[in-house]
Specification:
The chain is of the alpha+beta class. It has one domain: Ribosomal Protein L22, Chain A (Alpha-Beta Complex), CATH 3.90.470. The chain is 32% helix and 25% strand. The chain contains six helices and ten strands; from the N terminus they run βαααβββααββββββα. The strands form three sheets. It has a four-stranded mixed beta sheet with strand order 2-3-1-10, sandwiched between helices. A hairpin with a 2-residue loop joins β2 and β3. The radius of gyration is 17 Å and the shape is globular.
């Protein structure tokens, strides 16, 4: 299994490269509300292509982005990946989709925001692997047992990936080892 990723921070700090690349491709940024939204979406599409995913069944490919990080996982079977930026100043946690056991686990964590993201990314990558959507959150199994996050659910195993500091990234698949992390430079993603 391979996970391709790119940090868009330098691009967002100096967006001329993205603007030049879009101009060269004949792409308009008009459909996007903000430049960072355009950068994440376009980078996700480029990572998909660089991962050799054209013609790959959707269940064997998963893309996620948050903040400046864009990730794309490609494997031999159903999989899901999710990444979320850790935001210490975030508002109240949306707990309504959590089971009672998950809420109890979260209440006992020293860093509730970080623990919430660990649980959230697992739930979202599980949804992606199963072909679901956020509307299916309530149907997911509890991912906590005996005060611990479960290492698997529904025949899929979870693995947390350390890609960039300040982000929580989870992957789920039938087999999650070994995982080859493939960092891509901005020159590879948006070649001029």
């Amino acid at each position: 299994m391979r996970v391709y990723w790119c940090d868009l921070a330098p691009l967002l700090a100096q967006p001329e490269r993205l603007l030049g690349w879009c101009g060269g491709q004949g792409l308009s940024l008009a459909p996007y509300l903000r430049l960072d939204d355009a950068a994440r979406h376009l980078a996700g599409a480029r990572l998909r292509r660089l991962a050799g995913a054209d013609g790959v069944p959707p269940a064997r490919l998963s893309i996620s982005h948050s903040g400046t990080l864009v990730v794309c996982a490609r494997g031999a079977g159903p999989l899901g990946i999710d990444t979320e930026q850790v935001c210490p100043s975030a508002g109240p946690l949306p707990l309504s989709f959590l089971t009672h056991q998950e809420r109890l686990w979260l209440d006992g964590q020293a860093q509730p925001s970080l623990a919430f993201l660990r649980l959230w990314t697992r739930k979202e990558c599980l949804l992606k692997a199963e072909g679901g959507s956020l509307a299916d959150l309530a149907s997911l199994p509890c991912l906590v047992e005996g005060g611990l996050l479960l290492p698997r659910a529904g025949g899929l195993r979870f693995r947390e990936l350390s890609i960039l500091p300040g982000y929580v990234t989870s992957l789920c698949a039938r087999k999650v080892a070994p995982v080859a992390l493939r960092p891509l430079s901005l020159d590879q993603v948006f070649p001029l």
